[in-house]
Amino acid sequence: MDRTSTRDRDLPGGERILILSAGVGSGHNSAAAAVQQACAARPEVSDVQVLDVLQVSSLLYRTLLGKGYFVLVKGLPWLVEWGYDTSDPPFRRRGPIDPWTRANAVPVIGAIKRFRPTAIVCTHFLPAQLVASLLLRGVIDARTAVVTTDYDFQGLWLPGAFHALFVAREEGRVELTALGLPADRVAATGIPITHQPCIAPARSATEPPMLLISAGATGGDDAVSVVRQTMHMRSSFTATIVCGHNDALRQHIEQLVAPAGDRYRVLGFTAEMPQLLHRADLFVGKPGGLSASECMAAGLPMVLVNPIPGQEIRNGDYLMEQGAAVRCNTAATIGWKIDEVLREPGRLQRMRAAAQRIGRPDAAANVLTRLLGGPARPLVVTRAAQRTIFAASDQRVVATDLTGPSSLVRLVDSAAASTIALLQVKELKDLQKRYATPNGDLVLRRGQASISLRWEPRRFLRALLRRDDALPVRIEGLSASPHDLSE
Known about the structure:
Number of domains: 3
Largest sheet: 7 strands, mixed
CATH topology of the largest domain: Rossmann fold
Strand order of the largest sheet: 1-3-2-4-5-7-8
Number of helices: 19
Oligomer: single chain
């Protein structure tokens, strides 16, 4: 996917927004499309481009990351769960991008240079990590945002440099700030979804409840067992079944439900999804981040079936915790479970109210507002600070519990009042020797970033100074005492 829309090319100083995604499933690209749609409503945005980074990568790389993931989901789900849990701690992996990924990123870097963005939005962790390396190397000078696409935060999404990090819910924001990330760089906006006018006609109160059964964009075969079990339900209902691009699945289900007359409506891939979400009473399907967000924004409760281990299990946990979903752990009970929801007085209404409460239909617009109106300098998390954050996560402690030379400290831009660096106390002492002012703050200076400095401090200073020769900053401790900071 490489789509460009241009508006008001003559607008002086207009924002040029580059949205980077990766087509591993449809959710990341759907979130990218939502941000692109939000850009159209912003007069200061002159150019927008959406790029699926896998589409410009080698066929082997694209196949292994795109299709290989779903092969594992189907055949070795325990391995997917193990991989998710193993990569969950933030900054488990530090340092440069691996050579294979870097080689496949060459076309993406070329596209970034040609487009000359003023802001970059990443809806997948692969481009987020690449953009962080480009910031630190001085290749780009653009505001950068990382936009997560599941309800639980996963450590792979946390890069070493960024301007803004947007998570789906408040608990994710609390987790990251507890580990030391500054609150002015992390926001809980929800997952971006597209806005489409709902022209669905109102349903009569006498109509039976409507189930919306989704097989996903690619049409998963699990939908057959779901539909078969609904045929044993006692409650009155109608059902619309969406089979995606899987024509064989659609034909199979049409034959299966033929004896039920007009109770079932079977569709392939459809543009009617926004209308169906608003007409339905229950959504039956997987809790993907985008699917769940669209349902919540429409006030549509969910019956969760066959969640992918890892992120979808955690999405489901959140939805059930909030009272907006129930989960079926075996196909044999699907019909019974839906019956239980429909037959209990007031339960469907309570679930609908819970879905409406946690829905975030304006997430895409909020992402843009916060990014474009936010700090111009990136936040840099040094590799030493990354080690501290990883250790704190591994030991299940929060940043304010840490003491000693490995504890964390922040540098705050004195003029903009935004946090621009997170580093270890022992790194601060190095900076104080070079840049300390009489009042105890620092003035970072380009002229003093000599070749004698190690590579890490030099790239750190380059990312923070940008085009300036000097930058006054103040020091804020998280847990260290004044004595620790001045030693």
